[in-house]
Amino acid sequence: MIVCIAEKPSVAKDIADVLGAKTRREGYIEGNGYQVTWTFGHLCTLKEPADYTEMWKGWNLGALPMIPPRFGIKLINDKGIEKQFKIIESLMVNAETIINCGDAGQEGELIQRWVMQKVGVKCPVKRLWISSLTEESIREGFKQLKDQSAFQPLYEAGLCRAIGDWLLGMNASRLYTLKYQEKRRGSTPLSIGRVQTPTLALVVKRQLEIDNFKPEQYWELKTTYRDTVFASTKGKFQKQEDGQAVLDAISGQDFTITDVTRKEGKDFPQRLYDLTSLQVDCNRKFGYSADDTLKLIQSLYEKKITTYPRVDTTFLSDDIYPKCPGIMQNLSGIYGQYTAPLLEKKLPKTKRVFDNSKVTDHHAIIPTGVDPARGNLSEQEKRVFDLIARRFIAAFYPECVYAATTVMGKVDVYEFKANGREILKPGWKVLFEKEKSDDKEKDEEKVLPSFQKGECGPHTAELAEKWTQPPKPYTEATLLRAMETAGKTVENEELRDALKENGIGRPSTRAAIIETLFRRGYMVKERKNLVATKLGIGLIGLIHEELLKSAELTGIWEKRLREIEYRKYDSSQFIAEMKQMVTDLVKDVLSDNSARKLQ
After folding, report:
1. What are phi and psi of 197, to 5 degrees?
2. Contact 224/459 with Cβ under 8 angstroms?
3. Strand, coil or helix: what is 21?
4. Strand 2-6 and strand 34-38: pairing?
5. Angle at the Cα of 371 (from 365 to 377), degrees rounded to 5?
6. pTM of the model
7. Most CB atoms closer than 10 Å: which of 39, 249, 276, 593?
């Protein structure tokens, strides 16, 4: 009998249907030579400190650092999990072959490997690797099963991540709680993590910048000529009298157009979605949390409407190109006015969309071509699907062509400038015209009147008092971007891609990290803004060890984990480095003779 193990009952059912397994049993589905069973996400976890030695049961500075000679796993203490594990175990011990059908990613690999380790599997194990749950994709995947050994680096990367988080989280949380927290009845132990602490540090740093911001006064000089506002090229005036002197000098004199420059430019279609960019847009447009968006896109994946969601690439591999016309055709029911022009001819193929070198395990998130009406989607799911579908269709549209106009003017010796932008050919932006009209925060296209060099006439000048503004608080959207780029503010897509490999956490874990910070009381949400609490600010202020709160250092660890996944770095070396880092951390903190405490 061949045993297939999926990550959820719903996914197991989809796989069983394709394999012809129809008989429902308790905890599995059977038929046609297959037994298809499932986990509920993680059934196993790394052992806790108390599972290794009596000395680690209590919290004691003298017991640190806690470094097990060999890490072990155990079943999660839950009756439902224990019951399902016994069913899986009974199937696997009698299996001739096992097929790992876990989610095709690092976490999915770890979940099923740990279950098989706990069972003590001896038979051959194959791996199903698919990017969508459509019948076609599942059938194709079963024709291309690979030996599990091909995914050993993926498992090692996941294991290193888990061990690294255990080593730092378990040791640092006890270390800082015992060393620096005032002992009070009911006080909650401090929580320090490899990813959560540098993420909190970003929010705290921004919060302190806002709290300590001192607004500065300045003045702006503008003048209106032919209903067009021109700004002084001198920029800001730090002293009112300087601006007033210019205002007095130009009052009563004609405004003269000195130069008109018009250049055509192109806006390329936006990149396809990876998980982070989808979470950013859903937060910005709909106010959905990162965790909400992850749940919604996971549901769309399980309903076969969209492809695998936990991805960090915005590109498609070349083998997806032949499938795109079919996907486009199947989107015509809802988006016919946009797909019709594309289906009249061969779809364009560009490096901005298709690039094998930018795709590893999975491609960008796109529709599968399955009619969304079949998925009985919620209103929230429909919104998320609409973003993905429009982004996919737009990727095959021509560029938006615009004319950028710069008009220079002069009064006496003082120069002024006005900029305008006119859309000549909307191209891909036709898919987002409603969005533009709904989004009041977007810069509206400003078409300037036709100016002629040398023309002149009366104008109305004004000196306006202004104040510098504090930095904006993080929202979940901007925090996700900061995590992706290790704290660097980057708008350019190409530069952002270059920084991704040094980002904090993985796309699939960032939502959980943000939720953890809320749950621990280290930050709260005020409308869309993320605000660090007194406890969160105090914790980061307490930590003097840069390695615990540096986004860049954490990004380096993430890069190492990615290199392990792609056989470019040794997993044992990573674990050795983490052990040494924890040992050094304990030594440094214990040698601190200051009286600082978290109040």
Report:
1. -70, -45
2. yes
3. coil
4. parallel
5. 80
6. 0.88
7. 276
Distance CA 423, CA 432 (A): 14
Task: Tell me, yes or no, if 308 is annotated catalytic.
Answer: yes
Cα(531)–Cα(480) distance, integer angstroms:
15
User: Peptide bond before 215: cis, by omega within 30 degrees of 0?
Assistant: no
The answer to whether the CB of 76 falls within 8 A of the CB of 44 is: yes
User: CA-CA distances (angstroms) from residue 327 to 14, 337, 343, 372, 389?
Assistant: 20, 15, 11, 12, 10
In 3-state terms, what secondary structure has residue 482?
helix
Active-site position among 155, 308, 397, 414: 308
Alpha-helix residue ranges (DSSP H) falling in 397-550: 433-438, 476-484, 493-500, 507-519, 534-542, 546-549
CA distance 310 to 298: 9
What is the torsional sign of CA 61, 67, 68, 74?
Answer: positive
Look up residue 494 and give its two tokens.
């190409």
Is 90 exceeded by the pLDDT of residue 492?
no
Task: Tell me what pLDDT residue 443 has.
Answer: 44
Which residues on adjacent β-strands are paired with residue 267? 400
Q: What mean pLDDT, rounded, does the chain reach?
A: 92
Cα–Cα distance for residue pair 496/485, rounded to 1 Å: 7
What's the pLDDT at 437? 46
What is the identity of the amino acid at 573?
Answer: Q
- Contacts of residue 278, defined as CB under 8 A and 6 or more positions apart, other chains included, come to 293, 297, 309, 365, 384, 387, 388
